[in-house]
Amino acid sequence: MEGKTMFKLIGVIVLLWLVSMSLFVVTERELAIKFQFGEFVRGDYEPGLHFKIPFFQKVRKFERRIMTIDSRPVPYLTLEKKNLLVDSFVMWRISDVGLYYRSMRGLEANATERLSKVIQEGLRNEFAKRTIQEAISGERAEIMRVISEKIVSQVAEFGLDVVDVRIKRIELPVEVSESVFQRMRAERQRVATELRSQGAEKAEKIRAEADRQRTVILAEAERDAQMLRGEGDGSAAAIYAASFGQDREFYEFYRSLEAYQQAFQSKDDMLLLDANTDFFRYFTNRSPSPAPVRR
Predict the structure, then answer these.
(1) Which of 165, 212, 224, 226 pairs with 176 at a CA distance of 20 to 30 A?
(2) With 80 as the cut, is the pLDDT of residue 59 above it?
(3) What is the mean pLDDT of residues 14-30?
(4) pTM for this predicted structure
(5) What strands, in cross-sheet order, belong to the sheet with 57-63?
(6) Which residues are bridge partners to 32 per DSSP?
């Protein structure tokens, strides 16, 4: 009884093992190929559970997702025979796993090497048609578009599909970069010198115009001052004349006081005159000399 139970248990285990060996799962991220005695049988499996004959058939899986080849910068010659360092990458995937297996032996390294050669050849041809200016700033998008279109048709026979080709960076070699920088620096210095010269010329014109306006303003101010002084002197003379006509004695006394004030503004002022002169007549109580008679 125990021997029969053990035999059944072993039979169940063997059956389960055979069933597990007969099933395989293909996920959304995988492609699968079935081989029978080493020969390709089928490669169009959709994601899900599938069957195979144990020991006679084998299954090999490949990546279904998009893969990226990010190569190192490669020098390319432009139309002027100048080197440009181009850093690019390509995104690709397996479109036909049967063709991919037959052409690349199912090795991703072979596909990467093949794609890199095709891309480098395409970039070399496109950069050779263009100048540095066109390649760097003008037609980068056009180069990527042309390369993508050409590569798609070239790699389709290998079961590959190129999703995108991008140029990350285009640089000049060090010696060329230094030369370009020197030319740019010289150009900037020339522009700066020209702008300084124009600025100095404008500054000189502004200063000259300011000096002219200053001279005109001072001349006009002096003219107006002289006119005002003349008008003031005329008014003062009229006032003096009117005062003199009303009271001669008071007028002479008032004018003498103004003369004393002007003559003795400071304690250090010294004036040597005869005490009997008319200048001091109001200090000596002398009668003023008679005024000349106007005719």
Answers:
(1) 165
(2) yes
(3) 89
(4) 0.56
(5) 39-42, 30-36, 57-63
(6) 61
